[in-house]
Protein backbone atom coordinates (compact mmCIF):
# COMPACT_ATOMS: atom_id res chain seq x y z
CA UNK A 1 0.00 0.00 0.00
CA UNK A 2 1.30 3.44 -0.92
CA UNK A 3 2.29 5.65 1.97
CA UNK A 4 1.62 8.90 0.07
CA UNK A 5 -1.00 9.26 -2.67
CA UNK A 6 -0.02 10.52 -6.09
CA UNK A 7 -2.64 13.28 -5.75
CA UNK A 8 -1.04 14.61 -2.55
CA UNK A 9 2.47 14.36 -4.02
CA UNK A 10 1.34 16.26 -7.13
CA UNK A 11 0.06 19.07 -4.90
CA UNK A 12 3.38 19.08 -3.04
CA UNK A 13 5.37 19.55 -6.26
CA UNK A 14 2.74 21.93 -7.72
CA UNK A 15 1.95 19.59 -10.63
CA UNK A 16 -1.68 18.93 -9.76
CA UNK A 17 -3.08 20.78 -12.78
CA UNK A 18 -1.67 18.46 -15.48
CA UNK A 19 -1.15 14.74 -15.99
CA UNK A 20 1.85 14.69 -18.32
CA UNK A 21 4.30 13.76 -15.54
CA UNK A 22 2.06 11.32 -13.63
CA UNK A 23 4.01 8.18 -14.52
CA UNK A 24 7.33 9.86 -13.69
CA UNK A 25 5.96 11.33 -10.46
CA UNK A 26 4.67 7.91 -9.37
CA UNK A 27 8.12 6.45 -10.07
CA UNK A 28 9.76 9.15 -7.93
CA UNK A 29 7.20 8.65 -5.18
CA UNK A 30 7.72 4.87 -5.11
CA UNK A 31 11.51 5.27 -5.09
CA UNK A 32 11.45 7.93 -2.36
CA UNK A 33 9.14 5.77 -0.25
CA UNK A 34 11.52 2.83 -0.52
CA UNK A 35 14.56 4.99 0.27
CA UNK A 36 13.01 6.68 3.31
CA UNK A 37 11.60 3.48 4.79
CA UNK A 38 14.93 1.71 4.22
CA UNK A 39 16.73 4.60 5.96
CA UNK A 40 14.69 3.95 9.10
CA UNK A 41 15.80 0.29 9.28
CA UNK A 42 12.12 -0.59 9.76
CA UNK A 43 9.31 -2.01 7.67
CA UNK A 44 6.28 0.00 6.65
CA UNK A 45 4.24 -2.10 9.08
CA UNK A 46 6.61 -1.31 11.97
CA UNK A 47 6.37 2.41 11.20
CA UNK A 48 2.58 2.26 11.11
CA UNK A 49 2.49 0.64 14.55
CA UNK A 50 4.62 3.43 16.02
CA UNK A 51 2.08 6.18 15.41
CA UNK A 52 -1.58 5.26 15.67
CA UNK A 53 -1.38 1.59 14.84
CA UNK A 54 -2.54 1.77 11.24
CA UNK A 55 -0.81 4.63 9.43
CA UNK A 56 2.78 5.66 8.77
CA UNK A 57 3.71 8.75 10.87
CA UNK A 58 3.21 12.13 9.21
CA UNK A 59 6.93 13.09 9.43
CA UNK A 60 7.82 9.97 7.42
CA UNK A 61 5.19 10.84 4.81
CA UNK A 62 6.57 14.36 4.58
CA UNK A 63 10.14 13.05 4.24
CA UNK A 64 8.99 10.88 1.32
CA UNK A 65 7.40 13.89 -0.38
CA UNK A 66 10.47 16.07 0.26
CA UNK A 67 12.84 13.50 -1.23
CA UNK A 68 10.61 12.88 -4.24
CA UNK A 69 10.27 16.63 -4.81
CA UNK A 70 14.03 17.06 -4.56
CA UNK A 71 14.51 14.47 -7.29
CA UNK A 72 11.73 16.02 -9.40
CA UNK A 73 13.42 19.43 -9.27
CA UNK A 74 17.01 18.11 -9.57
CA UNK A 75 16.73 15.50 -12.31
CA UNK A 76 20.44 14.97 -12.88
CA UNK A 77 23.11 14.00 -10.37
CA UNK A 78 25.65 16.31 -12.05
CA UNK A 79 24.81 19.66 -13.55
CA UNK A 80 26.55 22.78 -14.79
CA UNK A 81 24.12 24.85 -12.72
CA UNK A 82 24.02 25.20 -8.96
CA UNK A 83 23.87 21.87 -7.14
CA UNK A 84 21.33 21.34 -4.35
CA UNK A 85 21.96 18.77 -1.66
CA UNK A 86 19.15 16.81 -0.09
CA UNK A 87 17.92 19.03 2.76
CA UNK A 88 19.10 18.30 6.31
CA UNK A 89 15.47 18.61 7.33
CA UNK A 90 14.87 15.28 5.62
CA UNK A 91 17.22 13.59 8.09
CA UNK A 92 15.57 15.45 10.95
CA UNK A 93 12.21 13.97 9.96
CA UNK A 94 13.57 10.42 9.68
CA UNK A 95 15.91 10.32 12.69
CA UNK A 96 13.30 9.83 15.46
CA UNK A 97 11.96 6.75 13.66
CA UNK A 98 15.31 5.18 12.82
CA UNK A 99 15.92 1.83 14.46
CA UNK A 100 19.51 1.43 15.58
CA UNK A 101 21.05 -1.85 14.54
CA UNK A 102 22.46 -4.06 17.22
Automatic annotation (TrEMBL):
Under InterPro entries, the record lists: Phage_gp6-like_head-tail (IPR021146), Phage_HK97_gp6-like (IPR006450)
The family database entries (NCBIfam families) matched by this protein are listed as: put_DNA_pack
Q: What is this protein called?
A: Phage gp6-like head-tail connector protein
Amino acid sequence: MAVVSLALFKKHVRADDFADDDEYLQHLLDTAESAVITATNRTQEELAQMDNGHDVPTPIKHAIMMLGAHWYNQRESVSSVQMHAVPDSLQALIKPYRKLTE
